[in-house]
Amino acid sequence: MYRMNPGKPVYFVEGALDAMAVTHINDRDVTALGIPGVGNWHRPWAGYAFECRALVAVDDDNAGNAKVSEMARDLNDAGALNVERAKPKTGDWCDQLTNMEAFEFLKIVELICMKLEKSIHE
């Protein structure tokens, strides 16, 4: 089994898009593995977190929350150094990224408007 970088946390999320989103949210300083839905979790995948900090970052919904303890147990049994639950602030990780990007965009627009207003009044 491929061994992840022990210096980087390993996020276990639902799907490839959430894996890309959580990687972007964390400034590409993590490894994110997208599992094809919590109902398809396979115990051997926990081995990817061997000697790494592992984050069970599945969706904060009934299915995700019901699977957290099983995944955490499997990750601990596979040799993860530390296992934690990570939840997106809203919906899933793609939703959180979308909300963050929109917020950042609005901050930039606000700054541009303030500069324009200032230049008009000078």
Report on the structure:
The structure is a single chain. This protein has a single domain, classed as Dna Topoisomerase Vi A Subunit, Chain: A, domain 2 (3-Layer(aba) Sandwich), CATH 3.40.1360. The longest helix has 29 residues, at 93-121. The chain has helices spanning 16-25, 62-77, 93-121; strands at residues 10-14, 31-35, 53-56, 82-85. The chain has 122 residues and is of the alpha/beta class. The radius of gyration is 18 Å and the shape is elongated. The termini are far apart. The model has no long low-confidence stretch (mean pLDDT 86). The chain is built from 3 helices and 4 strands, in the order βαββαβα. Helix 1 (16-25) crosses helix 3. Strands 2-1-3-4 form a 4-stranded parallel sheet, sandwiched between helices.
Q: What would the CATH topology be?
A: Dna Topoisomerase Vi A Subunit, Chain: A, domain 2
Task: Give the number of domains.
Answer: 1
Based on the coordinates given, report the CATH architecture.
Answer: 3-Layer(aba) Sandwich
Mean pLDDT: 86
> Briefly, what CATH class?
Alpha Beta
How far apart are the first and last residues' alpha carbons, in Å? 64 Å
Helix content: 40-55%
Helix-strand blueprint:
Blueprint: E1 10-14, H1 16-25, E2 31-35, E3 53-56, H2 62-77, E4 82-85, H3 93-121
Parallel strand pairs: 1-2, 1-3, 3-4
